[in-house]
Amino acid sequence: MAYTNVHRAFLQACSNHGTVSKQHALDMLTSICTRYGDSDTIPSEDDVVDVVAKINEKIYPFDQKIAYTHFEPLDCDFYVFVNLQESPIDLQQNVYTPLELHYFRVLLRELTLSEDHTLSMIACLNLTADTTGETVKPLPKTRAEQLLNEWEELGYFVVLEEKFHFGPKSVVEFEKYLSKNYVDVMTRCCLCNVTIFYGVRCASCPQILHKDCLKKYLRRLTTCPSCSKLWSVPL
After folding, report:
1. Could you say which of 99, 119, 136, 155 would form a disulfide bridge with 169 (CB–CB 3.0 to 4.6 Å)?
2. Residue numbers of the domain that contains 54
3. Does the keyword Hydrolase apply (predicted)?
4. Greatest extent of the chain over all pairs of C-alpha atoms, in Å
């Protein structure tokens, strides 16, 4: 498959949106093919997979990727445009001010350190106090609220039950960053060895696992993979 304007336009759309659902990705490709494609055939989900694979061949050498991920809290699949460098936060330097980037780091830190990886809106806005310095005024809360809305739209965060959670873009893009910088806090699923942002805790021991991993596991066995006691937590 040649790399065409369809691929270029789809990459631009994914980059602009940051995070798109599987259905949205198909709708985007359909619209793009109508404009740039040389066929009257309506694209399918398999065509989206092929287009993404071709794009990734082009952009992977530049530490970029369109990743496909299942986001457990929404039970929805997403395509996420991500940077693969060790500290992808710094790549936004030409988009946000140093103060705004610092606020983003503070949000990531506090979400990571909170017991359930959630923060209320008030807590997020109050974190602007952590952006003060001897010669720097704190980030205005009005600007912080704008940033939170923008970062939610890009998929860095999601709001569920009036609380901010890690969004699909943060889960994919910052998994290595958070695992490295908060090694004592972030845990890994004992079934897939991938960092857990959202999981299910065993009723008999402290073990936490990905819900999807656990569903597959419980098709074969009925006990906790850690303590071997009967699994009793509903999924």
Report:
1. 155
2. 5-83
3. no
4. 62
Label each residue of the chain as H, E or C. CCCCHHHHHHHHHHHHHCEEEHHHHHHHHHHHHHHHCCCCCCCCHHHHHHHHHHHHHHHHHHCEEEEEEEEHHHCEEEEEEEECCCCHHHHHCCCCCHHHHHHHHHHHHHHHHCCCCEEEHHHHHHHHHHHCCCCCCCCCHHHHHHHHHHHHHHCCEEEECCEEEECHHHHHHCHHHHHHHCCCCCCECCCCCCECCCCEECCCCCCEECHHHHHHHHCCCCECCCCCCECCCCC
Instruction: Tell me which residue has tokens 């740039």.
Output: 36
Which of 83, 106, 121 finishes a domain? Answer: 83
70 shares its domain with 92: no
Q: How many domains does the chain have?
A: 3
